[in-house]
Amino acid sequence: GYSSRLGGSGFDAVSAGGPTLFPLHKPQDTTADLEKKVHSLLEESATASAQGKYQLALDRAKEAAKREYQLGKQQDTSGSTDQIGMDLRFSVFFNLAHQYHLCGFTSEALATFEQIVKNRQYTLSGRLRVNMGNIYFEQKRYGQAVKMYRMALDQIPQSYKYMRVGIMRNIGISHLRLRQFQDAIESFEAIMREEPDLSTAFNLVLCYYATGNKSQMKHGFSILLGMRDTGTSRADGGGDGETSEEGEPQESFVQGDALRETMAERKRTTTHFLTQAAKLMAPIVERDPVSGFDYVTELLKSEGYPSIANELEIAKAMYFLKKRNYVQAVETLRAFEKRDQALAARAATNLSFYYFVDNDFRNAEKYASLAVKADHYNAKALINKGNCLFLRKEYEKAKELYQEAINVEADFVEAQYNLGLLSCERGDLKAGLECFQKLQSVVPNSTDVLYHISSIYDKIGNLRMATKWMELLVARVPSDPVALAYLGDLYSRDGDETQALHYNLESYRYYPVNIDVISWLGAYWVKLEYFEKAIPFFER
């Protein structure tokens, strides 16, 4: 019978094969599991993004947003409002917007950011307007970008100094892109009062240059010269190949020395800004270009930047060359002959080029030889000397120099082009064709290269390929009468009179004084016995 004694033969549900009852899950347990899953998906998304796997990061971010929504619904159902994680929700949607941006879905990114910033429960959401401004800036919607940056700036306390300066810099650059130079100047000047830096000082010089105010340009350049970033001193001047007090090259730091790498990078940045600003303002800062270059050069030397001053002297010569003031250009370049060897080599390279263009081949070769002697790895100097030897028909020596230039700079198109011309001049059409085809893969839109490829195929008797390449040329320069006439001639020799007529007429339309084209058109109509059409061409 029934016994209530412990150890008695009471009913055992397991032994009897009945259902086993387990304790029910509490809502809090489900919420905790979902929260862990959301955190896990967030971490996976961030990791994938850091590894450059942006699509995977976006997929994980979307899944995290979906799970977070389920988490919110679960919390509402269970009434556990004390567990609502606003920080987690903010992180989920911020990450989703960021991944949209990285994947190029800017509309979705902006919509998600807008959803966050409109939620007043996120106390720091106003900062995300900077992200929205960055997206508008990438879209070149600079007016909207300025609006977002200003709204973000209004919500950031004065104590966040560096953040405010960064936003003000973005506002200044946006105004610069909008060509609102006065507004940009106000932003950059405010930054220079708060937290001056090199890039802002350089942008300020750009704005002064754009407004054409010479006194402000001088003032801005003086400010730029006064900036001293870490790792840059007055004495080194930022020149390449200079040495330290110990006599070791300044750029040859120990591999893996992050501090020296950072210092070297800052030094290069300083040199770049100073060089570009000097080149920009020198021709216009004084009453004439010569005075302007002299003013800036002396200022650089007095501030301890001799290498940049020398760079500006080279730029001065190039300026005169572009303005066809050859006398002053040559005088400026010749002044480097007794200076530093590296500078003398650069000046000699430019002098060689000038004399070559001026048909003074003796001086061209003289200065090319000086440049090569000073630096045998100067590809431009090798080209110049090779050109001089080419004209003297010393083809083998010229070929060696062109090949050396290509070895120094593999993508030096001038050397490859000249090597192709040299091969054709020697009658080695196969080698010339190889050179120009290699060059065409590097500069596919070069009309000169297309012309030479077509010409070589014509010379070896392959009219079909010659016509193909000439058609590519005409497609790029459809109004070139020489190319049109050449294509017409190719079609004529290939027996296609209809196409030949078309291209010869096009050539005649653009250049009606080409005797060969006029003669061909007259003969064509005579052959067809349309004498009345032939007469006007023969009359010309």
Keywords:
disordered N terminus, 540 residues, 0% strand, extended, mainly alpha, 26 helices
Question: What's the SSE blueprint?
Answer:
Elements: H1 27-50, H2 54-78, H3 86-102, H4 106-117, H5 128-138, H6 142-154, H7 161-177, H8 181-194, H9 198-211, H10 214-226, H11 258-281, H12 289-302, H13 306-322, H14 326-334, H15 341-357, H16 361-374, H17 379-391, H18 395-408, H19 413-425, H20 429-442, H21 447-459, H22 463-476, H23 481-493, H24 497-510, H25 515-527, H26 531-539
**Individual helix count:** 26
* Secondary-structure-derived class: mainly alpha
**Distance linking N and C termini:** 136 Å
Please state the CA-atom Rg, rounded to the nearest Å: 37 Å
Overall, the morphology is extended
Strand percentage lies at: under 5%
The mean pLDDT is 83
Helix and strand pattern: HHHHHHHHHHHHHHHHHHHHHHHHHH
Quick one: how many beta strands? 0
Q: Give the low-confidence spans.
A: 1-25, 230-253
State the major sheet: none
Percent helix: over 70%
Q: Can you walk me through this structure?
A:
With 540 residues, the chain is mostly helical. Helix content is 71%, strand content 0%. It is built from 26 helices and no strands. The protein has helices at residues 27-50, 54-78, 86-102, 106-117, 128-138, 142-154, 161-177, 181-194, 198-211, 214-226, 258-281, 289-302, 306-322, 326-334, 341-357, 361-374, 379-391, 395-408, 413-425, 429-442, 447-459, 463-476, 481-493, 497-510, 515-527, 531-539. Helix 13 (306-322) runs parallel beside helix 15 (341-357). The longest helix has 25 residues, at 54-78. The termini are far apart. Residues 1-25 and 230-253 have low confidence and may be disordered.
